[in-house]
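Re: that chain you flagged

S.,

Sorry for the slow reply, it's been a week of failed gels. I finally had a moment to sit down with the sequence you sent. For the record, here it is as I used it:
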Amino acid sequence: MDRRKFLGTTAAAGAALVASPYIARAAKHELLVAEPVHSTGYLPMYIAMAKDYFAEADINVKIVTIETGAGHTNAVLSGQAFAFIGGPEHNAFAKAKGAELRCVVNCVDRGNVYFCAEKGLAPNGRDFASFVKGKAVATGGFGGTPNSITRYLLKKWGLDAKSDVTLIETANSAIHVAVKGKRAQIGCSTEPFITQGVKQNIWSEPFYNVPKELGPYSYSTINVRLDSIQKEPEVVRGFVRGMVKGLKFLYANQKESAEIAKKQFPTMPLDDLSATLDRSFADEMWSKDGMVSRAAWDTGKSVVMEAGILKTDVKYEEIFDMSFVESIRASL
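Prediction finished late last night. Pasting the structure tokens below so you have them in one place:
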């Protein structure tokens, strides 16, 4: 926002006011955050930006959407971005290759995907193994969290991802299209595509609700390089404080949060946006305080290890640093 500040000196009575324009300076810290998709799941971060919570620490946050699997992680590893928002398992992948990333604050604390069946094909009970076997399942790209959850559940149900089902790995925005086009009978997707698919009679309401079924899950967190924590702890602290305030605002001011969401997703029909937010609040999608519990990582780790994505066990302390959240919670 442009501002003018007038500076004057009065040498004697009746002296003229001397005015000069003041140009608002840029924030001291310009931070780029990479996201894998532009998602309502990341609403707490968008709220923190809209409410100037980051600006309180002299931080200006910009976001870049990189829909190329590990592209958001690589942007941070290469130093092109300060942080990425996404699954902390990517920190574990990097750790296995000798790189050091840390999750510093939580955002999405539930597995933000749902399984829907083609309209008229939903199962009657909970024998998911029998229902899914022999069908084509559309899910996200390999290495992404939705894909990992799909593979994890297939294994949990005693099914082989290669021989018992046909996996169609594609972009999230194309999953309901795959079901509509009869390429798949089941879709692993998220909002707003869930609601859109229901309204278009592509599929029924989810037959498997991952947020409720799997419980606390470190699904999308803010992750930075370890050297950012070591070299710029106050910058990290300022960012984390903004995120925690965004999370608290989200739950305390749902109506205004919806208004902020409208600005972030101006082309989304209001009915779709409302349904998306209603489902997210009902399933307690977002963290309420920024903390990631050990149980949440245990679930997340189990998913990627049993899906065969992560080959080595990575301990909580090796990829999480909750010290900033812990110190900030006491002051808010």
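What I noticed first: Residues 1-24 have pLDDT under 50 and may be disordered.

Talk soon,
D.
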